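Thread: protoporphyrin IX containing FE complex, take 2
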Amino acid sequence: MNDDRRVDEHSKDKQLETFRRETGEELTTNQGVSIDDTDNSLKVGERGPTLLEDFHFREKMTHFDHERIPERVVHARGSGAHGYFQVYESMAEYTKAKFLQDPNAKTPVFVRFSTVVGFRGSADTVRDVRGFAAKFYTEEGVYDLVGNNMPVFFIQDAIKFPDLVHSIKPEPHNQIPQASAAHDNFWDFISLMPESMHMIMWVLSDRALPRSYRMMEGFGVHTFRFINEAGKARFVKFHWKPKLGMHSLVWDEVQKLAGKDPDYNRRDLWNAIEMGEYPEFELGVQIIEEEDEHKFDFDILDPTKIIPEEMVPVKIIGKMVLNRNPDNFFAETEQVAFHPGHVVPGIDFSNDPLLQGRLFSYLDTQLIRLGGPNFAEIPINRSACPVHNNQRDGYSRQTIDKGRTNYSPNSLGGGCPMANPENLRAFTHYAEKVEGHKIRKRSDSFKDHFSQATLFWNSMSSAEKDHIVSAAHFELGKVQYKEIRQRMVDLFNQIDNELAKRVAKGIGIPEPQPVAQNHGQSSPALSMENTVKDTVS
Ligand code: HEM
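Output below.
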């Protein structure tokens, strides 16, 4: 490895320093021309009209007119922080990833916590999943662990993501309701998607109301792969554990806070770092040998399933400390671009169909959100180690590539970077053997939608169960269609009869009889013929 690829805890900060600008004292235009009056536009006489030649006015106004970029299509509201990651002991047995080898090395990180549904300006304390995305600026390139604060997801296949997000975002005709799961479209969709029931249990629980971003767990959700120097692969699940422990607000608190201090979680993170109370998270991994892939009664490629810690314990391998607030919200927190496809040698994907679809979606969305193909050059997104390739031009290109050639193969040299087959440290995709027919079908091994939801319900204390039932009453109580409420009770009944009876009682649905769990259930039969509004009074 070249010395110029080395990074340490301060590498990213030093790189960012080259882009920082003090505000300065004397006003100039973008061309550096000093300006003596920014309060009056250039006019003909005292009462106008304003002259087109007023370049200072035009530049100031044009820039302002273009200050907004599209918010993220999901996870629009977030808060970021800088810090470092340090592994406790070498993970060489499992992975060759350089940043997981040396316990003395500190890898710079940037983390963004977020809500999922609300707009950029929505309240922090809502019932929602929280994003937990970490960018590691390693000496082998950028690695992103783009996780959530819940270990499972709503859907099993990425092709359902646009449907899921359409259903949970405000309704398209009137943009009501904002930032809440409490509405007809969402529960209509969920009531027809039994695979979402495990995640729904997490969303109705106190996990959806974190007290602080410093007090949340994080999960990579999907099964990934670790590959060691010898080329041996193992499956891995990633976990973040907060050093402060996990704490939640209660429903009454979140509702009041959303009104009184919509920045509650953002402020808490900022203030803690300003006061030197640096948030710390330990990274844990569950490692599964390849030969054990099929030994579970669920599929480890199914993102609606956890691997219970009793079956595969979480091994704590390192810690992350967040010790610096961003200098500029827009430049860093807003423009940062995470992508589950940003991996380094030693970490690879699995065939989880949700992960596979995510690998397409992030770059695609960032091309429009960040204005074209050059957003990897935005300071917060830059790799801390050198970047050389033949990509050129495009909107807002910053790099001035020298040399006469920019294609491969080439015999003229001229500064053109070439792929080096001799570089044993280069990323090589894990050579997994796969074969099969092209089919549009969900694997039968993904069909049990209820066992782990039951496991979750059974693991709750009685106070936690009360909170889940109250949450269901609040959310489903606002659903105007009885058929949807009925279908939800039927799904809860597949999880636990007691749960279903308690939910039914609060939303105008008759208490259901116990049923045997249907482990292979597909969507309930649809009949909207009798769908009439019937709000719970
Ligand atoms: C953000 C797509 C599932 C975690 C995003 C964004 C998109 C997206 C388009 C906006 C990115 C941007 O504008 O920079 C998808 C798709 C999914 C999926 C298509 C499923 C098919 C998940 C899952 C997780 C997750 C399962 C957690 C493991 C996040 C996080 C962010 C995000 C944390 C915010 C990153 C940030 O702070 O900038 N997702 N997502 N997503 N997603 Fe996903």
